[in-house]
Amino acid sequence: MKSASPPLMRRKLTPLENYFSVRLKKDLIRGLGKHSHHRAAVKMLPTFVRATPDGTEKGDYLALDLGGTNFRVLYVRVVEEQQKVVKMDSKICSIPQEMMLGTGEQLFDHIAQCLGEFLESQDLKGQTLPLGFTFSFPCEQKEIDKSILIRWTKGFSCSGVEGQDVVKLLKEAIHRRGDYDIGSVAMVNDTVGTMMSCGYRDQSCEIGMIIGTGTNACYMEEIKNVKRVEGEDGRMCINTEWGGFGDDGSLKDILTEFDEVVDQTSINPGVHTFEKMISGMYLGEIVRLLLVKMAEDKLLFKGETSEALLTPGQFETKYISEIEDGLENAQKILTALGLNWDPVDACVVRLVCDTISSRSARLCAAALATISNRIRVNRGLDHLKTTVGVDGTVYRKHPNFSEELQAAVRLLAPKCDITFLVSEDGSGKGAAMVTAVAQRIWLPGCMLSFIFLPIFVYI
Question: Which part of the chain is the Hexokinase C-terminal domain (predicted)?
């Protein structure tokens, strides 16, 4: 039998969330600045997306989704009459650890190989289809088909890619094979894809948020506030790259000793501070470090540990969800980790997991509330009604995360009526939808300008 989770109504917000929100608000403004964005921790990257689907899109598209240890290839059909995006088929390909740390050429050759195998399995090699490329790493978008990788995150450190155009690297890998080709490419960040896929179903969707292996958000900003680009009218989707919040030391006073160890032992110390506090790639390790500390202080397991508990990465983030879902799960996991536990230990471990996941949900809520409040103030509204398109395994699979996040957002943004819409494959179908909108707006004989309008960017 599952034991009840701590009631959300008993969890009152602390001054930390408001303190956090004030700091993030300043960083958002710094990232939008013409002269300040270079030193901003929150990059606030212009995406040039200035429109959402209108329901008339149609056609067949390919989509690539690279954002973690696996990547997907999809064949997608957009049906105008039914106003829906149909995934015809897809393939998941793994990326070996050594390839994540190898050369960029090896990585893109692997992607091109998997794409070729998929096209052959679908009997599509003879066609040249447009492709939406979701590349979920910090990039500076120059054009619809040109995106420069700023830095690797999520455990990747492939050489020869940072500072390079990832679309060019993909096309070069395909050309090295020589057995198939692709059409026009639309680069899509996963948060933008999430917003666009949800916007197809809900026209009020103006925020996209990912909380999974990593974390990020995008939103529709008034273009007059985007000082890096020329223009006064309309709005532009901004890819915040909020995972970098705190990289300038602004969160140092709220980091725990466990956050600091996670950062120091990561492959990118000092980078993506906020992401390391809240995302799925790191939550399990934070819990592991805390349990080791409590055992060493003789507060758990009679002061004993195990080889598994002392091994980095052995306490997987999925264990947090499973343990919070019931004490029986906690007991099984502790046994599998070789720990000598008693019922009190199991309860304490569950409380530790709940504390770390709750902190993640609240900090994520504080960041989301900051963006929502900014949109409302930007538009001079007393009350904002908007929708957040959301995706990610932490949000989807943790038993309490989504509920706690939504409850905290309501408290932190009381003048915003926010609906949460879980994306139907934003990074896959969403990428295809971005490409579909591009095709709809593409005028014969013109460059594929899409909603990526030819706006001058101040570099």
Answer: 206-437
